[in-house]
Amino acid sequence: MRLEGFDYSSVGYYFITICVKDKRELLGKVDSDVGAIINRPCSKVALSEYGQIAETIIRLISDHYDDAIVDKYVIMPNHIHMILVITNGRLIIAPTNVSVIIQQFKRQVTKQIGFSFWQRTFHDHIIRDEKEYQKIWKYIDENPIKWQEDCYFVKE
């Protein structure tokens, strides 16, 4: 699934999607309401206990990897989107690598929960320019609002 020949420890911006196996909605539920103040529908994700653990681990990524920043993220009921930034690509011990960071994230969530519910792999996209970055930022921002249109949405 990775781009052949690309160095994923390179400085750059990466759009990452991590999915729950079989699209099971274990991370939370989308709560929809009518935004009376802003006069448009708005939604948010009420995180489950598992979703809260995932969020805690996401927020700790920069503490564990000096050269990595989670610039933006959303935790959806059965997947997570994030913009992961590699700022330097060189640690004292080993280079920061997108795959290592995501594997470690999954491992830490699994350790705290007591079982793994993740798909084996993850999706990545190398963000190439500001226009693409803004489009992905907006997509992440609006993902809860457009949940029923999402390719990961499962009708009950």
**Structurally, how many domains make up the residues?**
1
Structural class, judged by helices and strands?
A: alpha+beta
The CATH homologous superfamily is named Transposase IS200-like
The general outline is: globular
Report the order of strands and helices.
EEEHEEHEH
Instruction: Count every helix, treating DSSP H or I runs of 4 or more residues as helices.
Output: 3
Based on CA atoms alone, the radius of gyration comes out at 16 Å
| Whole-number mean pLDDT | 85
Query: In percent, how helical is the residue content?
Result: 25-40%
Say how many strands there are: 6
Largest sheet data? 4 strands, antiparallel
- Tell me the strand order in the biggest sheet: 4-5-1-6
Span between termini? 30 Å
Report the CATH topology name.
Answer: Alpha-Beta Plaits
Stretches where pLDDT falls below 50 for ≥5 residues? 34-39
Which CATH architecture is right? 2-Layer Sandwich
Range of strand content: 25-35%
- Under CATH at level 1, the class stands as Alpha Beta
Describe this structure in words.
The chain is an alpha+beta fold and 156 residues long. The protein has one domain (12-149): Alpha-Beta Plaits. 29% of the residues lie in helices and 29% in strands. It has helices at residues 49-64, 98-113, 130-142; strands at residues 12-19, 28-35, 40-47, 68-75, 79-86, 123-127. A four-stranded antiparallel beta sheet has the order 4-5-1-6, with helices on both faces. Helix 1 packs across helix 2.
